[in-house]
Amino acid sequence: MAHRIQTPTNQKLLTNVAVVRMKKCGKRFEVACYKNKVVNWRNKTEKNIDEVLQTQTVFSNVSKGQVAKRDDLIAAFGMEDQLEICKMILDKGDLQISEKERQVQAESSFKEVANMIANMCVNPETKRPYSIAVIEKALKDVHFSNKASSSSKKQALEMIPKLRETMKIDRAEMRLRTSVDSKEAKKVHTKLRALFKTIEVEDWDAHGNLELIGLIDPGSYRVVDELLRKDAKNAGRLELLSLKVINDGDIEIS
């Protein structure tokens, strides 16, 4: 007589997964994710949860395929909505990865942060960029520690002030052209001028229209844009001429 092997209904076997775990009310809850997608979700570079979760199911043990009990979900989360609970675990749970995977991810993130800093910054005295190797050494000297829950860009921006403690480094300046119609030009002139680190051209034409060309810190770009939209009541125009001004020439907008 033939026997049919049945998988229990509370089991779902998955392979090649990344597991995010949360312990709550004395119980373990896990979600099964695609590898390398959890960090993307937390950094908000991936917003489609179906690209992150292998299944919208809450487990008590992913590796054994054991699905969490309904009563346990209600006791711990106050609901039985699998998708909402998956999101909670995905956002707040602990990503389970091997030590080897952790080392590979940390090394990759370290290089990405160093590359971003090298691309964003220059020596403020020479206006020349630093090599990635120099930035990597500087990061090690200040004992940079990668944060898996934080994006590489955010970490790069946070590390620039720290690097200033040991080396001469600043964000590379942008070159802007701003134009303001005569009816609002005099009103915003002083505020607008103060946002430029270097004024290269300041021109008032016969009709009272203002044009300013110069260098600003990247962090001031939004302030200039907002000033022209709000204070100048949309009577101003902003043109980014060079994304990054360095001694070897400008990095133009493509």
UniProtKB/TrEMBL annotation:
Keyword match Transmembrane: no
Ribosome maturation protein SDO1/SBDS C-terminal domain sequence ranges: 174-243
PROSITE patterns: UPF0023
Domain Ribosome maturation protein SDO1/SBDS N-terminal residues, every copy: 16-103
Alphabetized UniProt keyword annotations: Cytoplasm, Nucleus, Ribosome biogenesis
Protein name, per record: Ribosome maturation protein SBDS
Highest taxon above the source species: Eukaryota
Organism the protein comes from: Enterobius vermicularis (Human pinworm)
Cell compartments where the protein resides: Cytoplasm; Nucleus
GO terms for cellular component: cytoplasm; nucleus
InterPro entries: Ribosome_mat_SBDS_CS, Ribosome_mat_SBDS_N_sf, Sdo1/SBDS, Sdo1/SBDS-like, SDO1/SBDS_C, SDO1/SBDS_central, Sdo1/SBDS_central_sf, SDO1/SBDS_N
Stored SUPFAM superfamilies: FYSH domain, Hypothetical protein AF0491, middle domain
GO biological process, one term: cytosolic ribosome assembly
Gene3D superfamilies named in the record: 3.30.70.240, Ribosome maturation protein SBDS, N-terminal domain, SBDS protein C-terminal domain, subdomain 1
NCBIfam families named among the record's database cross-references: RNA_SBDS (TIGR00291)
Subunit organization: Associates with the 60S ribosomal subunit.
Chain ranges of the Ribosome maturation protein SDO1/SBDS central domain: 111-172
The family this protein is said to belong to: Belongs to the SDO1/SBDS family.
